[in-house]
Amino acid sequence: MNNILAIAQKELRSYFASPIGYVVIGMFALLFGYFYYGTLSFFVQQSMQVSQFDFGGPAALNINQHVIRPMLNNSIVFTLFVLPMITMRTYSEEKRSGTMELLLTSPLSDIQIVMGKFFGAMGLYVMMLAVTLLDIGLLFIYGNPEWPQVLVGYLGLLLLGGCFISVGLLISSTTKNQIVSGIVTFTVFLILWVITWLGDNASPLTQTILSYLSITEHFEDFSRGVLDTKHVVYYLSFTVFGLFLTLKSVDRERWKE
Question: For the chain, which residues make up each domain, given as ranges?
Protein backbone atom coordinates (compact mmCIF):
# COMPACT_ATOMS: atom_id res chain seq x y z
CA MET A 1 0.00 0.00 0.00
CA ASN A 2 2.90 2.36 0.75
CA ASN A 3 4.23 1.85 -2.78
CA ILE A 4 0.84 2.66 -4.27
CA LEU A 5 0.58 5.86 -2.24
CA ALA A 6 4.14 6.82 -3.19
CA ILE A 7 3.35 6.45 -6.90
CA ALA A 8 0.07 8.35 -6.46
CA GLN A 9 1.88 11.22 -4.73
CA LYS A 10 4.53 11.26 -7.46
CA GLU A 11 1.83 11.41 -10.16
CA LEU A 12 -0.04 14.15 -8.35
CA ARG A 13 3.13 16.23 -7.96
CA SER A 14 3.95 15.74 -11.63
CA TYR A 15 0.65 17.36 -12.64
CA PHE A 16 1.62 20.53 -10.80
CA ALA A 17 5.24 20.41 -11.92
CA SER A 18 3.84 21.42 -15.31
CA PRO A 19 0.90 23.71 -16.17
CA ILE A 20 -1.42 20.72 -16.69
CA GLY A 21 -2.75 20.56 -13.13
CA TYR A 22 -3.44 24.29 -12.94
CA VAL A 23 -4.95 24.44 -16.44
CA VAL A 24 -7.24 21.46 -15.81
CA ILE A 25 -8.52 22.75 -12.45
CA GLY A 26 -8.85 26.30 -13.79
CA MET A 27 -10.70 25.20 -16.92
CA PHE A 28 -13.08 22.99 -14.96
CA ALA A 29 -13.75 25.74 -12.40
CA LEU A 30 -14.30 28.31 -15.15
CA LEU A 31 -16.76 26.14 -17.06
CA PHE A 32 -18.61 25.14 -13.91
CA GLY A 33 -18.76 28.74 -12.70
CA TYR A 34 -20.05 30.04 -16.02
CA PHE A 35 -22.91 27.55 -16.23
CA TYR A 36 -23.54 27.91 -12.50
CA TYR A 37 -24.07 31.65 -12.91
CA GLY A 38 -26.36 31.14 -15.90
CA THR A 39 -28.42 28.43 -14.21
CA LEU A 40 -28.74 30.38 -10.96
CA SER A 41 -29.72 33.58 -12.79
CA PHE A 42 -32.45 31.72 -14.66
CA PHE A 43 -33.65 30.19 -11.38
CA VAL A 44 -33.90 33.63 -9.74
CA GLN A 45 -35.84 35.02 -12.71
CA GLN A 46 -38.26 32.10 -12.64
CA SER A 47 -38.69 32.49 -8.88
CA MET A 48 -39.55 36.17 -9.25
CA GLN A 49 -42.10 35.40 -11.96
CA VAL A 50 -43.69 32.73 -9.81
CA SER A 51 -43.74 35.16 -6.88
CA GLN A 52 -45.64 37.73 -8.93
CA PHE A 53 -48.47 35.26 -9.44
CA ASP A 54 -48.47 34.40 -5.73
CA PHE A 55 -47.69 30.71 -6.26
CA GLY A 56 -45.51 30.46 -3.21
CA GLY A 57 -42.51 32.50 -4.34
CA PRO A 58 -39.04 30.96 -4.50
CA ALA A 59 -40.17 28.02 -2.40
CA ALA A 60 -42.39 26.94 -5.29
CA LEU A 61 -39.26 26.11 -7.26
CA ASN A 62 -36.98 23.38 -5.97
CA ILE A 63 -33.36 24.52 -5.91
CA ASN A 64 -32.13 20.93 -6.07
CA GLN A 65 -34.07 20.17 -9.23
CA HIS A 66 -33.64 23.52 -10.97
CA VAL A 67 -30.05 24.41 -10.06
CA ILE A 68 -28.05 21.55 -8.56
CA ARG A 69 -29.30 18.76 -10.82
CA PRO A 70 -28.61 20.69 -14.07
CA MET A 71 -25.15 21.59 -12.79
CA LEU A 72 -24.35 17.98 -11.94
CA ASN A 73 -25.44 16.92 -15.44
CA ASN A 74 -23.38 19.71 -17.00
CA SER A 75 -20.36 18.50 -15.03
CA ILE A 76 -20.41 15.30 -17.10
CA VAL A 77 -19.85 17.38 -20.23
CA PHE A 78 -16.97 19.21 -18.56
CA THR A 79 -15.28 15.94 -17.57
CA LEU A 80 -15.66 14.75 -21.15
CA PHE A 81 -13.25 17.48 -22.25
CA VAL A 82 -11.03 17.80 -19.18
CA LEU A 83 -10.26 14.23 -18.10
CA PRO A 84 -8.43 13.27 -21.33
CA MET A 85 -5.94 16.01 -20.42
CA ILE A 86 -5.31 14.24 -17.10
CA THR A 87 -4.88 10.70 -18.40
CA MET A 88 -3.18 11.29 -21.75
CA ARG A 89 0.30 11.67 -20.22
CA THR A 90 0.22 9.00 -17.48
CA TYR A 91 1.93 6.27 -19.52
CA SER A 92 2.59 8.04 -22.82
CA GLU A 93 5.04 10.47 -21.19
CA GLU A 94 6.79 7.60 -19.40
CA LYS A 95 7.30 5.84 -22.73
CA ARG A 96 8.37 8.98 -24.58
CA SER A 97 10.93 10.01 -21.96
CA GLY A 98 12.26 6.47 -21.50
CA THR A 99 11.35 6.27 -17.80
CA MET A 100 8.91 3.45 -18.44
CA GLU A 101 11.80 0.98 -18.51
CA LEU A 102 13.03 2.23 -15.15
CA LEU A 103 9.54 1.98 -13.69
CA LEU A 104 9.07 -1.60 -14.91
CA THR A 105 12.47 -2.72 -13.62
CA SER A 106 11.92 -1.17 -10.20
CA PRO A 107 10.80 -3.35 -7.26
CA LEU A 108 7.16 -2.55 -7.95
CA SER A 109 4.46 -4.91 -9.13
CA ASP A 110 2.31 -4.07 -12.13
CA ILE A 111 -0.78 -3.69 -9.99
CA GLN A 112 1.02 -1.21 -7.71
CA ILE A 113 2.00 0.86 -10.74
CA VAL A 114 -1.52 0.82 -12.20
CA MET A 115 -3.28 1.58 -8.92
CA GLY A 116 -0.77 4.29 -8.03
CA LYS A 117 -1.33 6.11 -11.30
CA PHE A 118 -5.08 5.63 -10.97
CA PHE A 119 -5.19 7.16 -7.49
CA GLY A 120 -2.91 9.98 -8.63
CA ALA A 121 -5.29 10.89 -11.45
CA MET A 122 -8.28 10.50 -9.13
CA GLY A 123 -6.58 12.83 -6.67
CA LEU A 124 -6.46 15.60 -9.26
CA TYR A 125 -10.06 14.86 -10.23
CA VAL A 126 -11.14 15.18 -6.58
CA MET A 127 -9.40 18.57 -6.44
CA MET A 128 -11.39 19.63 -9.49
CA LEU A 129 -14.66 18.68 -7.84
CA ALA A 130 -13.61 20.28 -4.54
CA VAL A 131 -13.28 23.66 -6.26
CA THR A 132 -16.93 23.49 -7.34
CA LEU A 133 -18.03 23.07 -3.71
CA LEU A 134 -17.39 26.80 -3.27
CA ASP A 135 -20.23 27.52 -5.70
CA ILE A 136 -22.51 24.88 -4.21
CA GLY A 137 -21.73 26.19 -0.72
CA LEU A 138 -23.26 29.56 -1.61
CA LEU A 139 -26.58 27.81 -2.19
CA PHE A 140 -26.52 26.56 1.39
CA ILE A 141 -25.72 30.04 2.68
CA TYR A 142 -28.46 31.85 0.78
CA GLY A 143 -30.86 28.96 0.14
CA ASN A 144 -32.04 25.71 1.60
CA PRO A 145 -31.06 22.83 -0.72
CA GLU A 146 -31.30 19.21 0.36
CA TRP A 147 -27.75 18.11 1.20
CA PRO A 148 -28.34 14.32 0.72
CA GLN A 149 -29.01 14.90 -2.99
CA VAL A 150 -25.81 16.92 -3.28
CA LEU A 151 -23.78 14.15 -1.61
CA VAL A 152 -25.31 11.46 -3.82
CA GLY A 153 -24.71 13.60 -6.91
CA TYR A 154 -21.03 14.10 -6.09
CA LEU A 155 -20.68 10.39 -5.32
CA GLY A 156 -21.99 9.75 -8.82
CA LEU A 157 -19.45 12.17 -10.29
CA LEU A 158 -16.64 10.38 -8.45
CA LEU A 159 -17.76 6.97 -9.69
CA LEU A 160 -18.24 8.23 -13.24
CA GLY A 161 -14.83 9.91 -13.14
CA GLY A 162 -13.27 6.62 -12.02
CA CYS A 163 -14.70 4.95 -15.12
CA PHE A 164 -13.38 7.64 -17.44
CA ILE A 165 -9.94 7.62 -15.80
CA SER A 166 -9.64 3.82 -16.05
CA VAL A 167 -10.38 4.05 -19.78
CA GLY A 168 -7.92 6.93 -20.19
CA LEU A 169 -5.16 5.00 -18.44
CA LEU A 170 -5.76 2.02 -20.70
CA ILE A 171 -5.48 4.12 -23.85
CA SER A 172 -2.42 5.99 -22.57
CA SER A 173 -0.67 2.67 -21.88
CA THR A 174 -0.89 1.73 -25.56
CA THR A 175 0.89 4.71 -27.16
CA LYS A 176 3.92 6.98 -26.76
CA ASN A 177 2.13 10.01 -28.18
CA GLN A 178 0.22 12.14 -25.68
CA ILE A 179 -1.81 13.89 -28.40
CA VAL A 180 -2.94 10.59 -29.87
CA SER A 181 -3.79 9.33 -26.40
CA GLY A 182 -5.85 12.45 -25.64
CA ILE A 183 -7.76 12.38 -28.92
CA VAL A 184 -8.55 8.67 -28.74
CA THR A 185 -9.59 9.00 -25.09
CA PHE A 186 -11.94 11.88 -25.90
CA THR A 187 -13.41 9.89 -28.79
CA VAL A 188 -14.08 6.87 -26.58
CA PHE A 189 -15.61 9.10 -23.90
CA LEU A 190 -17.87 10.66 -26.53
CA ILE A 191 -18.98 7.24 -27.76
CA LEU A 192 -19.80 6.12 -24.23
CA TRP A 193 -21.79 9.33 -23.80
CA VAL A 194 -23.90 9.17 -26.99
CA ILE A 195 -24.16 5.40 -27.39
CA THR A 196 -27.89 5.49 -26.61
CA TRP A 197 -28.47 7.65 -29.67
CA LEU A 198 -27.53 4.68 -31.83
CA GLY A 199 -30.56 2.81 -30.55
CA ASP A 200 -33.20 5.42 -31.38
CA ASN A 201 -34.52 3.36 -34.28
CA ALA A 202 -33.43 -0.04 -32.99
CA SER A 203 -35.43 -2.81 -31.38
CA PRO A 204 -36.47 -2.50 -27.71
CA LEU A 205 -33.88 -5.13 -26.73
CA THR A 206 -31.08 -3.22 -28.47
CA GLN A 207 -32.20 0.02 -26.86
CA THR A 208 -32.14 -1.64 -23.44
CA ILE A 209 -28.62 -2.99 -23.99
CA LEU A 210 -27.27 0.33 -25.29
CA SER A 211 -28.93 2.18 -22.43
CA TYR A 212 -27.25 -0.12 -19.94
CA LEU A 213 -23.86 0.34 -21.62
CA SER A 214 -24.17 4.14 -21.61
CA ILE A 215 -21.96 5.53 -18.89
CA THR A 216 -24.09 8.67 -18.53
CA GLU A 217 -27.50 6.97 -18.36
CA HIS A 218 -26.49 5.48 -15.02
CA PHE A 219 -25.83 8.98 -13.67
CA GLU A 220 -29.44 10.13 -13.97
CA ASP A 221 -30.51 8.66 -10.63
CA PHE A 222 -27.45 10.14 -8.92
CA SER A 223 -28.36 13.62 -10.20
CA ARG A 224 -31.84 13.19 -8.71
CA GLY A 225 -30.39 12.18 -5.38
CA VAL A 226 -31.36 8.52 -5.75
CA LEU A 227 -28.69 6.03 -4.66
CA ASP A 228 -29.32 2.78 -6.54
CA THR A 229 -26.86 -0.05 -5.95
CA LYS A 230 -27.15 -1.29 -9.53
CA HIS A 231 -25.58 1.94 -10.78
CA VAL A 232 -22.84 1.75 -8.14
CA VAL A 233 -22.09 -1.85 -9.18
CA TYR A 234 -22.01 -0.81 -12.85
CA TYR A 235 -19.50 2.00 -12.26
CA LEU A 236 -17.29 -0.08 -9.98
CA SER A 237 -17.34 -3.03 -12.39
CA PHE A 238 -16.54 -0.74 -15.32
CA THR A 239 -13.62 0.82 -13.44
CA VAL A 240 -12.22 -2.54 -12.31
CA PHE A 241 -12.46 -3.92 -15.85
CA GLY A 242 -10.68 -0.86 -17.26
CA LEU A 243 -7.90 -1.18 -14.68
CA PHE A 244 -7.64 -4.92 -15.39
CA LEU A 245 -7.08 -4.23 -19.10
CA THR A 246 -4.54 -1.54 -18.20
CA LEU A 247 -2.76 -4.07 -15.99
CA LYS A 248 -2.55 -6.50 -18.89
CA SER A 249 -1.22 -3.74 -21.16
CA VAL A 250 1.50 -2.84 -18.64
CA ASP A 251 2.35 -6.50 -18.20
CA ARG A 252 2.82 -6.79 -21.95
CA GLU A 253 5.23 -3.85 -21.84
CA ARG A 254 7.19 -5.60 -19.09
CA TRP A 255 7.66 -8.70 -21.25
CA LYS A 256 8.89 -6.53 -24.12
CA GLU A 257 11.76 -5.27 -21.99
Answer: 2-256
